[in-house]
Amino acid sequence: TLILLLFVGNLYATNYYVSTSSSGSANASSWTNKQIYSSFNWSRVMDGDTVYFDGGIDSLTYAPVTLSAQGYTNPSIRLNRFTSKVVITKGKDAGHNGEVIFQNFNSSGVKYAFFLDMTSNIKLTNLTFNTISTTDDYGNQKQIIGLGDGINNVIDNCKITSNGLGTCIFVIADTNLTITNNRIEVLHNTYLSDADCIFMGSGGGGHIITGNSMFNGKVDNTYHADFIQTTLDGGDNRPLMIIANNFMCAPDTDSKLMAGINTEGTSNSYLIYNNIIVMRTKSNSCIIMYDTYPTKKSSLRLYNNTIITRTDWQMRIANLDTL
Fold this sequence. Notes:
By secondary structure, the chain is mainly β. It has one helix at residues 2-11, and strands spanning 15-19, 35-36, 50-53, 59-62, 65-68, 86-90, 99-104, 114-117, 122-125, 128-131, 143-148, 154-156, 159-162, 167-172, 178-180, 183-189, 198-201, 208-210, 213-218, 225-231, 240-244, 247-250, 258-264, 269-273, 276-279, 284-290, 299-303, 306-309, 313-318. It has an eleven-stranded parallel sheet, with no helix packed on it. The chain is globular. The termini are far apart.
């Protein structure tokens, strides 16, 4: 009965097709009738639907996109809060399956390439996100992908690249976020702006970060650059956070003030295993769990990680409830 219900539910899922221009009836029902993405009404999307972005023959580039589940948001970019996954991905048909690039730039007027606000059960997959911004304002937190106040969202098999002006994945107040099988890279740069691979703060915990390749080439940091940083994340029930099977590399010997995994003020149960962390930087700690918040306590299970570092500490661990 359950299998039948799932099958019947999938019959009602809808595919939408959007691009950098419209054609045909422009109702997003097919590539023949594709709709320009800036006119697509996201409130049409329901549980289980898929939105295909046109990648052309080789690639197509899109200006920054914001999607929100807040009630006061413009209906054209307002999403429901879904109970089953809604997939946003590139086209899979010939002529439309090139690279889909969401790009931030100086004149865009925003500080991200793609932003999910209060969304639930959104899956971003097989997409590229980057920036060509050149404004180095270290007091303004920039991001390539931004997420806020969401639950059960997924970033999978994507390429996220920062030129040093912005954190690759910047997360505030999200719960149960899954980040899997991505290439996440901060290019070699000497900018002052902060640029972590992943930053997570003030959320409900329960995140899964697995199978990613991360590179951070930031040099002479005003802010320390991390691969994974969490702060004030988790909850009284200490939700499980899994960091596993990732490759993290800081290749530049001139870099400093960098950490592999850095937590502060969190209440999580961390399970960290099968990661490879290579730090060639001047000053670093590969794993930092040194919480200074006496009311916040985490537990840590740490297995089978490979850590290669030039200087300072492989691990700085203190104030944990259990290890």
